[in-house]
Batch of 2 targets.
Target 1
Amino acid sequence: METDEPYVVLYTGNMLEDTFRIRGIPCQKHLGLCLETQHPPNAIHNQQLPSILLEKDKEYHSKTRFTFTVD
């Protein structure tokens, strides 16, 4: 994974209820993961971190590339 974002958050879904479904398929613990690139999650509340506020009428761009291989 390559990104210009400073942080990567891992979500596993292990706390989802058994009744939660994705495309009709029941979720199961340890069956998948999500990698989300982003700025510091608590930056809005921590003035020691760089500002994450977007200015009006300014465009925001970010690049993330996932590469997967199979042996």
Target 2
Amino acid sequence: MLTAAQFDRHMPINRGMTYEQMLDAVETQPVHVIEATLDDDTSGLYCEAVQTIIIDEHMTDVQKRCSLTHELFHWLHADDSHAEYGKSHAEWRVRRETAMFLIDPADYVQAEREYDGEIYQMSCEMDVTVFLLEDYRRILEYSQPLHS
């Protein structure tokens, strides 16, 4: 279980959950999740001051699932969405954590083989967004040792 002891918070979800199951699991936590219309470039927001996550209501459940997980990691770290200092570091950290949390390495390898690396089909198979799968691939690229 992932925890943030400094804030007495723990991740209430797991990668096998649907969006609806995640919403049910979050109900026991001191964070509120609401759906609303957000602008075209925003799929979710987290506000530490009121410990509230907002998810764009116009997305698919797979998109909402990925966005909710992402915003829960912001909540776990008590990231202040309004703070400018370290914003890019916090965002990349959460993107990395979300990809590593939602994508099982064995499932990734299987989908890579089955769909010959075609990212859209792989993302559909794993119930994640193409954007999240691209983040996962970046993580894999940077973790590979360099050979001379």
